[in-house]
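User: I'm new to structure prediction. If I give you an amino acid sequence, what do you actually give back? Let's try with this one:
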Amino acid sequence: MQLNGQHTDVLIVGAGPSGLMMAAQLLRYGIQPVIIDSRQGPTDQSKALAVQARSLEIYRQMGIVDKALKDGKPAEGVTFNQNGHKIDSFSVKNIGTGETPFPFVFLYQQSKNERLLLDYLTRQCCPVYWNTTLVSLKPGADKTTAIVNDGNEDAMLTCRYVVGADGAHSVVRKQLQIPFNGDVYAQEFFLADVVLDNPELTDSFIQLYLQDRGFTGFFPMPEKNGYRIIGNLPEKATDNIADLQLEDVVPAMNAITGLDIQVIKNNWFTTYRLHHRMADSFSKQHCFLIGDAAHIHSPVGGQGMNTGLQDAYNLAWKMAFVISGHMSENILESYAAERMPVARTLLSTTDRAFKIILSKNWFVSFFKKHLLSKVLKYVWSKESWREEFFKRVSQIGISYRDSQINLHLSNATKVKAGDRLPYLKVFDEKKQEETDLHEWCAKPGFTLIVLGSFKELDLFTLAKWLSQHYPGLINFFYLPASAKNQPVFDAFEIPKGKKKAIIVRPDMHIGFINDVVAIDMMDNYLVNVLGLKKQ
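Assistant: Good question. You get back a string of structure tokens that encode the predicted 3D arrangement of the chain. For your 535 residues, that looks like this:
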């Protein structure tokens, strides 16, 4: 297909994980985007390594999680070492049991994520235009003109929306003249994907080695004896960094770890500088930034790729509903309002953690050497701290409670509008089988869940209201009170004999909660708060 002179509803610039997720989510709503990338094809380098539980929940909703689970593996824990001596190990095996279908930290390389999403696009007949670069953007009142080049000639596209998913050096962001403020860490770092013959390194625990002169981390890959190694370069090595090879940093690794690192195979080695930056705005006119084009930070906690996937997940359903004519364009303003605070918090927390790891301050060094073990043991002994740790790392704790597109009309305090829909098991009395609330939200669109005791006529009235005024946009489920489903009623703080209405957004965040089931109040939320167009 020729791009020249073509009009598209959405042009996605960048076919990394964020861009591919954006395209995949749009396809779920029948929107066919154009996606371009300046590379020759998907990456063959592992790059980002961790896929958090929230991302796996998205993959489950898309029907592709089984493939990811087959090709990756959970990390069982983290071992801290100081000056070559083990401080302690902390298990993260099934740490989030009951909170998500995926209660672990999952190791699954970026290269595999890209291929997983590319397979999804291929099945939906959505090609990626590789070796195609964005030359210029000209935003207008109702459309944006883009000039792209396929390596031979320029072509012009008109686009209703443009999504910049083109990484830290985003051409989209530069064309829009959006500042990308932040800083660069002073140290130089290296990354290596290797096969090792070091039995003292387990293939299930992340091994972190801390020392005054630096740090080295070993992250087990899904492949046998495969490891991602990350560390800071020794000062002497930075004198000739352009010619640096893996064997040049092995002596420094040996000194920090107290091991004799035996490299059997070197799959990838690179040196780099780490930045922590964030765009001043995530949107301008009809153009949007997601992923590394909007924010970059240290790799602490394996958050970067997952945050980009959620950026796309947040933006895509809103854009799809606008393009299909079901929602007013004002909904798109909520993308930046919801995702910028997430990026800002992430930037701050990862920056603080990384600076502590790298600090040569005497007090921090003293703390790491003499107090770190005691603090970690104390913190990990507290169930509430372990739960909070998992919610942060897994990203299931991200909430949009302050968002203007949510409405909380309930006395409940544990779960509020804006929160991610809790993962709760449900016993289907009609089918006599167990399912869960997330499974109820598998189909594209909104989901209305009513809980309590209702007459058949009441349920018929609700179903008729939805089919007449919001056909195909809102899925409907009813959960009656029962002994087997009491935990669900307890989670939503529903007293005996009472009812509750919950409207779940397409991104599985709760948009509306009310302690009464009233059609006029739900209509008010859908029309006046969300901007959904009633028929």
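You can read the tokens as a compact description of the fold. Here is one thing that stands out. The chain has 14 helices and 26 strands.
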